[in-house]
Amino acid sequence: MRSKLLLLAALAASVAPLPGRAAETETYHAILTDLNAGKIGSKPMGQASFKINGNNLEVHITMSGVPADIEHWEHFHGFPDGRNATCVKQDMDANKDGYIDLGETEKPSGTTMVPFNDKPEDMIIPTNTYPQASAKGDFEYTKIVPLEQLSKTFGRTYPGGTIDLDKRVIYVHGVPSNSNLPSSVGSLGTVPSHVTIPIACGKIEKN
User: Fold this and answer.
1) 202 contacts 64 by C-beta, under 8 angstroms
2) Radius of gyration of the chain (CA)
3) d(CA 14, CA 6)
4) Backbone angles phi, psi at 199, to 5 degrees
5) How far apart are CA 80 and CA 160, in angstroms?
6) What domains sit in the chain, N to C, each tagged with a CATH number?
7) pLDDT digits over 118-166, tens only?
């Protein structure tokens, strides 16, 4: 009996994590495809990767085909109750004005949650610290986000809520201010519609 117990203990030790061993990472990705491409004169596309690595969330987003030489807001959207978010589709144009606006993303995608600007952990949406597209219409965003701080801010904003990346979608927004959008294109509060109009979306999935 004693030899059997020793064997079981040895097997358990062989699969147990070693003291001080780093936690395994979790990785996620999203492929972003265009929205409103027929109206904005370009076809944005890109990809995003997210890695939970210890106490940090590492974010890397690359985009091409976006309107050039302007700042582009980008965020993950989702439902505070934990429902699974999906990207809006072009045929979800509720007011039939030919554009998908921010309000029309809410039914499939939920609300704007975490910004990818200079300090995502603060969850302050209106800032001027989002990526700036090049003259070629591309940009790259890389940020290491303190996960504990982000989780605390998220929990205060959405009591009981958790990050749950694989239940979220990522949007990229923005067209030039001279785009002459119709007044029917809605926005966020007093933020102009050319800033918040979605131009690309991708579903975040766990690798």
Assistant:
1) no
2) 21
3) 12
4) -120, -10
5) 9
6) 28-206 (2.60.40.200)
7) 999 999 999 999 999 999 999 999 999 999 999 999 999 999 999 999 9
